[in-house]
Description:
With 542 residues, this protein is an alpha/beta fold.
Amino acid sequence: MLGLMQSQPLLISSLIDFAQRHHGDVEIVSRRVEGDIHRYTWADVARRSRQLAHALDGMSLQFSDRVATLAWNGYRHLEMYFGVSGSGRVLHTINPRLHPEQIAWIANHAEDQVLCFDASFLPLVQAVHAKCPTIRQYVMLCDAGKLPEGTGIPNLVAYEDWIGGQPSDYQWPSFDENSASSMCYTSGTTGNPKAALYSHRSTTLHAYAAALPDVMNLSARDSVLPVVPMFHVNAWGIPYSAALTGCKLVFPGPALDGKSVYELIEAEGVTFAAGVPTVWQMLLGHMKPAGLRFSKLKRTVIGGSACPPAMIRAFQEDYGVDVLHAWGMTEMSPLGTLCTLKNKHLALPADEQMKIRLKQGRAIYGVDMKIVAEDGKELPWDGKTYGDLYVKGPWIVAEYFKGEGGDPLVDGWFPTGDVATIDAEGYMQITDRSKDVIKSGGEWISSIDVENIAVSHPAVAMAACVGMRHPKWDERPIVAVVKKPGAEVTREELLKFYEGKTAKWQIPDDVVFVEAIPLGATGKILKTRLREQLKDYKLPTA
Ligand code: AMP
């Protein structure tokens, strides 16, 4: 017997309809590429998304055709989130930090038909357009009549000219909720990138889950700053969850330096912000010397790479801001776990609570997880046993776009490539990417633990730990360190700093001071590149 409730597909267009009807006067504030601040409302987003949908129809784009973006976080990008997917096309957000060759490869693989880009990416588009034969329309996200002369880019139009004359009475189509809505290519540190292809259903369910109190706790009373880019896993789904809750949105544009982000947080009464640790490092680095405080910021979700304990403490203890440590990946839309305390933890002393907060957190409803040994056997949730982390759920990939890489699942589970522990309360802690784990004398050393201790030293700005071949122990860890400007620390001092903070055999064998640590397009440490840079390095203990 079937239930007798109305069946209505979960479509992204319903999110923007809802925001318009119930929160139409709520502001969306953007720092533009031009540097000025732009303000309008959810009602304007809805109206202009419809105009955009008309413009796409005018090009005779088919259902599921791909429309690409190379854009910062801003209001026009938000309109594309709703106008492109809402009209049945697939939004392909491209990471502009990728190498131009890789961008061209991705655009060809996705068979993008339209590319919309911020003015700051004009040189990038000039460099790649000749290699992108499928793109038939280029759109610069700029004011009417503001296209520069002689760009050499064919079929180029200014966004405001493109949508400006279009009617705003578009009727969103209804279709199968499992239809593709957007796509995002993985960073592809090995081999060619592969695309996660999200659906309307997976995106809407993820938006519901992300807004929950034990997740981002978004509401109509919040002012939300997604510093996490809209070109990387849909800014962790925040644009969709924002429409669903009717919160105010604040977009930083390209100005991600500490001063600009701080000023925006204060000027717009931001209560909740989301970003990767490197961006927050710049923010705290700006605030501390100037003795600045937050007036409204209450919570920040930090993820994308392990959040160093020193950062969680700084936010919590120095600024009274709750840090929600989150873990996820492109293949997971991206949210998998988020760290919030349970009722029983509230009575614990602060340092015990901090030990929990340092973990990547508990699974969100919709995500099932387990850790397994090399033979595939499930491992216990005891907070000590390490294993490969597997996940499954309705917003986790079943396969990659065009079947690249074959069947990624193992018995219906997606192997994340991360190594983790899970404790009896269900709190998961990432110890490493499986390819980065250091195997020393049959034991595993977590490179994240080694890095976290190094960055808690006051003279250290950044640290990356890698394993080096060792004749006796197989591998031993060393830590590459970037010092803070003007700060001093010696190799011996730093190695001494580890004593008492970790088991003796987990202390790195050496410290290598470097000018910079190589970062990939999504801000994560590129250990492969670091290992190449250190290929002539010899362990002092070998
Ligand atoms: P991406 O698909 O580019 O978002 O990368 C996903 C990967 O980033 C995960 O598989 C993890 O290795 C890493 N990651 C994300 N969040 C965290 C976190 N909070 N702690 C440690 N690693 C993380």
